[in-house]
């Protein structure tokens, strides 16, 4: 078989010769785009998504919904400005085939949607998608009345035999391995005959901001949602059955994808402005303002966006990242360049992300001369003088951007398969070299 050059290709990570000073327009949020697509597909009238992210994960989501009959057309928004998708909901149809790639949002958010289709929907994806937990969604859907054929492992591949409607009602799940189990059931909940009541029974629940994002976006399209934060029982979310509105939504920039650019300001003692940083958001990336300030930077949020400035010093940090796990690779990269050790906690579930992120970060930083050890629930990082070498990425977009951060400060770092950033940020190499003025 011919070698897959995209995977073996090495990208010389640009080394920063001085402090960066740039404005970086970061494309739309993956998490917001994929929720908006699902909600628009389930609505009772057409809707608009403006400035949607166009990346592997969102194109897979759009392709899957189209396969079930939803119209997603290219267009300009109703006011004539900006790129947009117009979403035309219809009855959801099977038979259909869905490629989830390695998108957690697609593999978890769509089986409940497929249960509403009028025929079988087959789900398959990348080899890694077979290893990522899906049992919470599969077991819950069976409890709520769906028929699903899988191989008994609680994972992909599988077929959901939709019959056009789902009873819904109460269900208990352990979502300690992924918050996306909860989000998945809530997003389709308004369309279940009895709505849904999701009770999380596990000891921990990661990524709470992402669950808040789901609840906020459901409410914005007219759903009634009761949450622990709105006076309900702890760990219980309730969605009332009802029709969803078609809305005109402008997608926020992806704040987790802003991370490497803010990190560049931090590690080079420079300045990066990210326009359109929202004043209020549920995105976990907003926590970077606090984390990267504690690590040595400072930031100002204005109506124009976020201005982040490095001081020239980078400090270690002891932090629980359970709420914001997807920020871990970028924080680990900065921590490897700091003037004191770091402990990153609360992220054992990262072992089941795009790759085992705790093992991958430990191995790759140590191969450049670092001193990282895995703990039961995170990483301990003792900064060392790093040297040149190949930074492997394991088909993980956030490993590639973590390696690029290290490359700014360490000469001769080569990123294997930087193209894997296409999962959520296909423009990464160009934005990165543009930031550096190359
Ligand atoms: O709902 C979402 O959009 C996401 C939830 C989180 O998943 P986990 O709770 O599985 O970590 C996050 O890591 C992922 O990148 C996106
Ligand atoms: C964990 C991530 O993605 P997914 O949506 O595939 O879970 C991520 O983007 O860091």
Automatic annotation (TrEMBL):
Family matches, as SUPFAM superfamilies: EPT/RTPC-like
Entry keyword S-adenosyl-L-methionine: no
Membrane spanning stretches: none
UniProt keyword annotation of Ribonucleoprotein present: no
EC number(s) from the headed UniProt entry: 2.5.1.19
Reaction catalysed by this enzyme: 3-phosphoshikimate + phosphoenolpyruvate = 5-O-(1-carboxyvinyl)-3-phosphoshikimate + phosphate
Positions of the catalytic residues: 326
Residues holding phosphoenolpyruvate: 30, 104, 132, 180, 357, 398, 423
Residues reported in the UniProt entry to bind 3-phosphoshikimate: 30-31, 35, 178-180, 207, 326, 353
Recorded metabolic or biological pathway in which this protein acts: Metabolic intermediate biosynthesis; chorismate biosynthesis; chorismate from D-erythrose 4-phosphate and phosphoenolpyruvate: step 6/7
EC primary class: transferase
One GO-annotated biological process of the protein: aromatic amino acid family biosynthetic process
A molecular function GO annotation: 3-phosphoshikimate 1-carboxyvinyltransferase activity
Domain Enolpyruvate transferase residues, every copy: 17-430
Keywords from the named record: Amino-acid biosynthesis, Aromatic amino acid biosynthesis, Cytoplasm, Transferase
Assembly notes: Monomer.
The protein, known as: 3-phosphoshikimate 1-carboxyvinyltransferase
Lineage, uppermost ranks: Bacteria, Bacillati, Actinomycetota, Actinomycetes, Kitasatosporales
Gene: aroA1
């Amino acid at each position: 078989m011919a070698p897959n050059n995209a995977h073996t290709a090495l990208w010389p990570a640009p080394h920063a010769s001085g402090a960066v000073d740039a404005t970086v327009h970061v494309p739309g949020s993956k998490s917001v785009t994929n929720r908006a697509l699902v909600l628009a597909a389930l609505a009772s009238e057409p809707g608009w998504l403006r400035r949607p992210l166009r990346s592997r994960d969102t194109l897979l989501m759009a392709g899957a919904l189209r396969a079930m009959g939803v119209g997603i057309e290219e267009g300009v928004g109703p006011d004539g400005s900006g790129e947009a998708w117009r979403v035309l909901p219809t009855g959801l149809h099977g038979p259909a085939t869905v490629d989830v790639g390695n998108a957690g949002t697609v593999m978890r958010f769509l089986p409940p949607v497929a249960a509403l289709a009028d025929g079988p929907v087959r789900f398959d994806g990348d080899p890694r998608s077979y290893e990522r937990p899906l049992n919470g969604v599969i077991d819950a859907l069976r409890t709520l009345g769906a028929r699903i054929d899988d191989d008994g492992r609680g994972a992909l591949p599988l077929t959901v035999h939709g019959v056009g409607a789902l009873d819904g009602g109460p269900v208990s799940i352990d979502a300690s391995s992924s918050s996306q189990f909860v989000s998945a059931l809530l997003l389709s909940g308004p369309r279940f005959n009895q709505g849904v009541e999701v009770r999380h029974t596990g000891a921990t629940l990661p990524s709470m901001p992402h669950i808040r994002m789901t609840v906020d976006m459901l409410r914005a399209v007219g759903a009634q949602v009761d949450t622990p934060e709105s006076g309900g029982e702890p760990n219980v979310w309730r969605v009332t059955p009802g029709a969803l509105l078609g809305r005109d939504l402008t997608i926020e920039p992806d704040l987790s994808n802003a991370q490497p650019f803010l990190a560049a300001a931090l590690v080079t003692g420079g300045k990066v402005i990210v326009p359109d940083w929202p004043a209020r958001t549920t995105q976990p990336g907003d926590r970077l303002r606090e984390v990267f300030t504690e690590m040595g930077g400072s930031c100002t949020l204005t109506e124009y966006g976020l201005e982040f400035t490095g001081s020239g010093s980078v400090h270690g940090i002891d932090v629980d990242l359970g709420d914001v796990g997807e920020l871990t690779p970028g924080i680990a990269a900065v921590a490897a360049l700091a003037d004191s050790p770091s402990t990153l906690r609360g992220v054992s579930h990262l072992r089941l992300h795009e790759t085992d992120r705790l093992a991958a970060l430990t191995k790759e930083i140590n191969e450049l001369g670092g001193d990282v050890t895995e703990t039961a629930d995170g990483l301990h990082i003792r900064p060392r003088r790093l040297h040149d070498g190949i930074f492997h990425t394991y088909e993980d977009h956030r490993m590639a951007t973590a390696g690029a951060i290290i490359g700014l400060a360490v000469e001769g770092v080569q990123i294997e398969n930087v193209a894997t950033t296409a999962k959520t940020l296909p423009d990464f190499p160009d934005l990165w070299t543009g930031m550096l003025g190359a």
